[in-house]
Amino acid sequence: MDSAGQDINLNSPNKGLLSDSMTDVPVDTAAAAQTPAVEGLTEAEEEELRAELAKVEEEIVTLRQVLAAKERHCAELKRKLGLSALEGLKQNLSRSWHDVQVSNAYVKTSEKLGEWNEKVTQSDLYKKTQETLSQAGQKTSAALSTVGSAISRKLGDMRNSATFKSFEDRVGNIKFPQ
Hints:
About 70% of the residues lie in helices and about 0% in strands. It is mostly helical.
């Protein structure tokens, strides 16, 4: 069959299927015939089960073909809509992260970490460490401020010196060719 004879009904389970492009899973009836029947089955029951098995296997093949066609159709629609694989990956990651966040393990772990955090932040050792670090930060900030003021004052003194003014006058008198 050529692509012109392809089923174009969008609701058809065979949409986009070409008979020569899909392979069926063969049922080895010879091997099945050689397998001894389960004890207690009559020949008629065995034949009925084999017929049902063949029918179910045929349905499985058909469903695989339909699924493949639907996946191709889905990919084509996404391509036409400009949805990239990256966009799909982002959506999948977002959905997966949400699933993780609402999972029992994540919720229980978060609760336990919250309890530990509460215990740690309420402990005397934590409070003392926090206070010490806060004081160290304040002292460091004051020291850096003092250093900055001293540097600023020295630069101001240097700028007001006679040497700097003489240098500034000389640089200011340089004429640049145009």
